[in-house]
Write a structure and sequence with these properties.
Protein name: Dihydropyrimidinase
Enzyme class: hydrolase
Bound molecules: N-(aminocarbonyl)-beta-alanine, zinc ion
InterPro entries: Amidohydro-rel, Hydantoinase/dihydroPyrase, Metal-dep_hydrolase_composite, Metal_Hydrolase, Metallo-dep_Hydrolases_sf
Strand content: 15-25%
EC number: 3.5.2.2
CATH superfamily of one domain: Metal-dependent hydrolases
CATH architecture of one domain: Alpha-Beta Barrel
Cofactor: Zn(2+)
CATH class of one domain: Alpha Beta
Length: 468
Amino acid sequence: MSRTVIRGGLVITAADEVHADVLIEAGRVVALAAHDSEFTAGWSASAGRVIDAAGKYVIPGGVDAHTHMELPFGGTFASDTFETGSRAAAWGGTTTIIDFAVQSVGHSLREGLDTWHAKADAQCAIDYGFHMILADVNEDSLKEMDVLVEEGVTSFKLFMAYPGVFYSDDGKILRAMQRGAANGGLIMMHAENGIAIDVLVEQALAAGRTDPRYHGEVRHALLEAEATHRAIKLAQVAGSPLYVVHVSAEEALAELATARDKGLNVFGETCPQYLFLSTDNLAEPDFEGSKYVCSTPLRPKEHQAALWRGLRTNDLQVVSTDHCPFCFSGQKELGRGDFSKIPNGLPGVENRMDLLHQAVVDGHISRRRWIEIAAATPARMFGLYPRKGTIAPGADADIVIYDPHAEQVISAETHHMNVDYSAYEGKRVTGQVETVLSRGEPVIDGKAFVGRAGHGQYTPRGTCQYLI
Ligand code: URP
Ligand code: ZN
Ligand code: ZN
Ligand code: ZN
């Protein structure tokens, strides 16, 4: 049986930081013990592979609970396939992604799920699971939710935005929440008042305000806060937990904090783009601002401090990427002269672990909190723990050796995502992935990708393990 030993690193989990050696067998962590102690004697001699991690961090692989590989949007498709996107994720120290399968209006959840399996199966370099986007809440799709939960698709995204595409009205949302309360499915909410936003879009375009920066203005922070408030109340009435995706506005975060102070099972996710980028980027000239068009939108810089505080106080529990890349050339350009036609989404699946490590360096969060928000809590939230999100006996050996002192400059020249720009072009970060194991198999080894498409397995999930 193939054994791997990781020697001499600082093992960091959400719970602990210990100088320990890690023994891996058959793709799983078998044991951790004090470095070079009597307990680890003989481990290296019997191992097929010994990884020297002296001076490095040994961390659980990142769990990115929000990606959109090949998502059809605005007449085009997100530019990363499961093959290119999962490989880029591995380069960045992420070993599990949860992507969103999409139900099309007039079709079943099963059809949507089958379509996403056809895109992903045998393509991924790392393990993956699916959430389901509910675009058409009706008697049949509500019944199907029960079946999907049993099969391991245990979370369902609803949209208060995008009328005519993914939008659900309050009645449909309430029904889905009631069903989730009964079957254990976690409702994920895109909380923006899309009906009001569409009025503001129409008015802006009619007044000749067509540049990318108006995307940020019409998607008002108060319309994120209002929708967040409404989603919380609907969840309360339905008796269901609620997970609000891509929180960007301080006012929306305040709604989550109020609900959590009442002891409600209300959770929030934010993304690196809201922590590191702002409306200044949306206002970049020569249509460069289109590179930063996503929804919820980037906010004025002042919101960032509130988001960091939310991550420290646990009013926000998860940082995912909402990775949804569109090339500047040919894709973002669809919206020249009309910001509402710019496909929404930013690349980032490769950058998340590094940017959050930079947040450790900058003093925003601790090392253990880094692992908590990027690996452990997403795994618990979406029913993957302790198989994913930690380093403990029995866990999958999804492990990253991380060099906390390496310096790098983020750039489209060197990234591995299939997109022609980086949202973080030129940003210096301290820290870099050195080695990535997925179920004990090397995927990244120094500067080389040594994994393969199809190594990544579809991973059915349990229900939310984070409820109060
Ligand atoms: O702009 C974004 N976030 N695009 C992806 C779809 C979504 O709403 O998450
Ligand atoms: Zn159909
Ligand atoms: Zn969304
Ligand atoms: Zn998304």
